[in-house]
Each structure stands twice: as C-alpha cells, then as structure tokens.
Write a structure and sequence with these properties.
By secondary structure, the protein is α/β, with parallel strands linked by helices. The protein has 11 helices and 11 strands. Helix 9 packs parallel to helix 11.
C-alpha cells in the first residue's frame, strides 16, 4: 500500500495557491492507495477549503483530512468546537474526504488514526522566563504592552518583565480567531482522549498489523525547532504537547507518525516509531510517500 502525505496547504493564503495546485496535479497523476492532508488546509472561510479539496477530485485512492488550528478559526456566529465536529466533516465529505479524527480507517492490514492534537504550553521555552498567563492569553509581553486590552496583564507582572521580555512582540492568532468554551488544556484532553480510543481499538484488532498516525500538532518535543529568534521561541508553546507523544508510545502497533504545523521539516525516531514533520511552508508544499 502506498500513502501520500502532505500538510499545511493554507489554500486561503495567496502565496500558497500556486504550490498547492502544482502538488495537487502531481498527486492526481499517481496511483497511490490513499492521500492524507495533515492540517491547516485552509482557514476560517469555507470556500477555500472546498476549492482546495476539489483539486484532488481525480485522485484515484481514498482521501483523508486531519484539521489544523487554522481550520478551527471562526466566521461570525460560529464556534470552534462546532467547526471541528460538524462543519469541517461536512465540507470534507462534499469532496470525498473523510476526517480521520472522527472516522479512523483500515486499509488492508494497516490502521490509519488521526487527530488535530493541540497544545498545553508544555513546549514553552523556559529560558525566556515569560509568565504562564501570557501564554494563556496568546500574546507575548511586548505585544501585550502595545495593546490596550492587555494593559491589566502587563501591570500584573510589571515587576517581573525586563526589557528583553518587552522586545518580544508577537501574538498567537488562535487567540483572535477561535471561540470555544474550553481551555487549551481541556481541548487537548478532549482530542487526545478520542485519539487514544482509536489507537486502543486498533491495538486490540487482530486484523491490523500496524498503525500509521497523523497529527497536525507536534507529538514529540524533539521536532520543536531550536536556536531560533525569541519570537519563534515564544511560539514554541503552541506547537504541540508531550501528552500526544505519550499516548502514541503506549501502543506497540504504531510504526509511523506524520505531523505538520511548525512549517519546519524534520524526522526522528522515537523508540521504534518513525516520526516525520512534513515541513511545508507557505510557498513550498512537501509530499511524503510511505509504502507499507
């Protein structure tokens, strides 16, 4: 069986369009058994997601998608949980895609499990010394100091903030574009619990020889980019969680894991598990091929 895997197509962003269309043409010319899009296919607007998925209409194999954080960004009147549970699966189904988070699949003797994953700030760079409340607010001290709505947060920690902290000016835009009645930690537990159920079911199924997992956020901190400027170090808090990797490692049948999100290509081996970050950027889309 041949699997094709890509991630972070961001078809709602102008500078991504040409590279996505070129990749889709390449994919549709193959005779692979399945295609998986591992998150951030598009953003809040529904039509770019529809248009992107339709690019793969001529692909002959099975088609799967895992949502990314951008996929949960909301239009007026929406909330992110409903997008995750209802809207994304509905739009995907129109184009012949299944959402692995909700519908894990079996092809031959291989189980395909999927999850958006999420973050709980466990990957934050402790060296920065930024209070946890800034991570929860999804705004760095320098950005908070420039925004009236965060004046109280800055004042609360004024005695702890240094000029170095205030030089870090960045926002994690999930805070501006998502709406849900859960904390990040609660949402992580929610999606990882579902993912764990998929893996447990596959582990107990005697028909399945191996499991390939697809997670948008980084499941292992070994994939977090290091040695980068402070604003990127701040953003590391939102790249994933140890809980995802711990869940995966609990199951012996998992042989491969694919992720995206960081736009930073990388590979590592965790025990007997081969882990690949697809590493697509806004202007260049990577395609991974796995023969199992």
């Amino acid at each position: 069986m041949r699997l094709l895997v890509t991630a972070d197509l961001h078809y709602d962003i102008r500078r991504s369009i040409a590279s996505v269309e070129a990749l889709a043409e390449r994919v549709c010319r193959t005779d692979a058994d399945a295609l998986v899009l591992v998150g951030d296919t598009a953003g809040a607007a529904h039509q770019p997601l529809r248009d992107c998925l339709r690019l793969f209409a001529d692909f002959p194999g099975q088609k799967f998608i895992v949502p990314g954080n951008h996929c949960l960004w909301c239009l007026p009147g929406e909330d992110s949980i409903r997008r995750y549970e209802k809207i994304i699966p509905s739009v995907a189904a129109e184009a012949g895609f299944s959402v692995l988070d909700h519908e894990p699949a079996i092809i031959g003797e291989t189980g395909l499990a999927g999850s958006i994953g999420w973050y709980d700030y466990s990957y934050r760079d402790e060296v920065l010394g930024i209070p946890l409340e800034f991570y929860r607010a999804k705004v760095s001290p320098g950005a908070a100091a420039r925004l009236a709505e965060y004046r109280g947060l800055v004042e609360k920690f004024r005695d702890q903030l240094t000029d170095r902290h205030l030089d870090i000016a960045v926002r994690w835009m999930d805070g501006a574009h998502m709406r849900m009645d859960m904390s990040d930690e609660e949402f992580l537990d929610y999606v990882v619990g579902r993912f764990d159920g998929q893996l447990e079911t596959f582990e107990a199924d005697g028909r399945i020889r191996q499991v390939v997992a697809f997670v948008h956020h980084l499941p292992f901190r070994q994939l977090v980019p290091t040695g980068r400027p402070a604003k990127f170090a701040f953003a590391a808090a939102y790249l994933g969680s140890d809980k995802i990797g711990d869940t995966i490692q609990a199951y012996r049948k998992v042989t491969h894991v694919f992720c995206g999100h960081s736009h930073w290509q990388g590979k590592c081996k965790i025990g007997n598990i081969n882990v690949v970050n697809v590493g697509s950027t806004y202007t260049h889309k990577n395609l991974e091929v796995l023969d199992v």
